[in-house]
Design a protein that fits this description.
By secondary structure, this protein is mainly alpha-helical. It has 19 helices and two strands. It has a two-stranded antiparallel ribbon with strand order 1-2. A hairpin with a 5-residue loop joins strand 1 and strand 2. Helix 5 crosses helix 14 and helix 8 crosses helix 9. The longest helix is centred in the middle third of the chain and has 35 residues. The chain starts with a helix and ends in a 13-residue tail after the last helix.
């Protein structure tokens, strides 16, 4: 078991090192330039995400699809992951993480567009889509689509389920001494009440939970930043200087190189917002939308909220708190965010615990849909019930066992998901540009695409 864990740890470290960073960040830059900086349309995209497209075919509203995608994306990585990046890469990692989010908007737009462009309508009226359909129909590479789905299923059981369940159980045990098995039972009941009613139930719950959890966490971050107000100027200057200077970071931080800041900041940003991973397009394909570009714009806002807003706020909170409170040890990779929130009198731990629990639970719901659609692609509708039953079992198991090996296997599967998806984005970039020109650049965003209605 130790040898297996060591193998997957090394493989995960390699895949999420420079090869994946170059591939993902390179795709972000390439699509940003080729699509004429779609980031400039972010406010139009945000407006569209709250606009109902009542006359369009689909399973859920554009808002519901976005909230489900955000549920899966905004997770404990936004809380713990940013702290790890700052500890290992220095405060400059915050800027690189933020830049990754800004550029990642273009890739999230691209994969969302392909999801709607190549989606299919089943005999019972459901919409199915995602990278596997874009790869099969757009590139004619069925084997690569199958590989993507296999990796998605394994990743969903791990990072999308087991490790999230464990995070909830650990949080309640550490703070309130609630046994892990008791938390596991409650989690199982709550998950059953949602996922067995299908995508509409998942989207409805996520539509209520995600805005609450995000606003709640943001309020906590803003409160801490107000407390640290006198140190914000120094914080911002330090973040920018450390991002581009090899000099020691100072202020209690371990000095790092520009390469270290870039590596950990980019890696955490990519891992957090999932732009290019291929997960979010699976739910984007189910959205009620009149053309592929409208949903692509809505999908792109997921990266904006996750990284440009939530991760950036977390980074500012951590760096300003290390500067303001000398007793916070910046080398404690897994505890930096907790230490920052502990400085919020009386309610700091409560804020963080509620955020961890809601972030992790919503991730379980969102990823259950991703895995379900992948298993359906592999084995048909009849396999869904077996997947759901397995999902519920893993929710409980995840709460009560050690998950170090699961983490490493899941990280590996995530990287293996991204590769086929990025291949489809790059090879089908001409299709993406053509659709974008037709509906966005030629100002025909309100027109209906009959292909989306099939």
């Amino acid at each position: 078991m130790e040898q297996l864990e060591s193998f997957f740890s090394a493989l995960s470290g390699f895949l999420w090192g420079w090869p994946m960073i170059i591939l993902l960040f390179g795709t972000h830059i390439f699509m940003t330039i080729r699509l004429r900086f779609p980031q400039l349309k972010i406010f139009k995209a945000i407006k569209l995400s709250f606009t109902k497209d009542k006359n369009s075919k689909g399973d859920v509203s554009q808002f519901g699809a976005l909230m489900t995608a955000l549920a899966a994306t905004i997770g404990i990585g936004n809380i713990i992951g940013v702290g790890t990046a700052v500890s290992l890469g220095g405060p400059g990692a915050v800027l690189w993480c933020w830049l990754t989010g800004v550029l990642g908007i273009a890739t999230k737009y691209s994969e969302g567009l392909l999801a709607v462009k190549y989606r299919e309508k089943t005999q019972d009226g459901r919409m199915l889509g995602g990278p596997m359909y874009a790869i099969e129909k757009g590139l004619g590479m069925k084997w690569l689509a199958v590989l993507f789905c296999i990796c998605t299923v394994f990743a969903s059981f791990g990072i999308g389920n087991g490790v999230q369940s464990k995070a909830i159980a650990d949080s309640l045990f550490i703070s309130y001494d609630i046994p892990h098995f008791a938390t596991g039972i409650v989690e199982v009941v709550l998950v059953i009440l949602v996922i067995f009613f299908g995508v509409k139930a998942i989207a409805k719950v996520c539509g209520s939970l995600v805005p609450f959890m995000a606003i709640f966490y943001i309020i906590g971050c803003i409160t801490i930043l107000i407390m640290n107000w006198n140190f914000l100027d120094e914080t911002i200057i330090l973040i920018f200087k450390s991002a581009f200077s090899p000099q020691a970071a100072g202020a209690g931080f371990i000095g790092g190189t520009v390469i270290m800041a870039a590596r950990y900041g980019i890696a955490r940003g990519l891992f957090s917002n999932e732009s290019g991973l291929g997960s979010a397009p699976i739910i984007a394909a189910a959205a009620k939308t009149r053309n592929s570009v409208r949903q692509a714009l809505v999908s792109s806002t997921g990266t904006f909220w996750d990284t440009v807003v939530v991760c950036a706020l977390t980074g500012l909170v951590i760096v300003s708190s290390v500067i303001a409170y000398p007793d916070i040890d910046a080398s404690k990779t897994a505890l930096l965010t907790q230490a920052a929130f502990s400085k919020l009198p009386y309610v700091g731990s409560l804020f963080l615990n509620i955020s961890i629990i809601t972030f992790a639970f919503s991730t379980i719901l969102g990823w259950s849909y991703y895995g379900e659609k992948s298993i359906e692609y592999l084995g048909g509708k009849k396999t869904i019930i077996y997947y759901r039953l397995t999902w519920v079992v893993i929710v409980f198991i995840g709460a009560v066992i050690n998950l170090d090996l699961v983490w490493n296997i899941s990280d590996t599967m995530n990287a293996m998901m991204a590769i086929p998806n990025l291949i489809s984005v790059l090879l089908l970039s001409g299709v993406i540009v053509k659709e974008t020109k037709k509906y966005l650049w030629d100002k025909k965003l309100n027109e209906y695409d009959t292909d989306c209605e099939l």
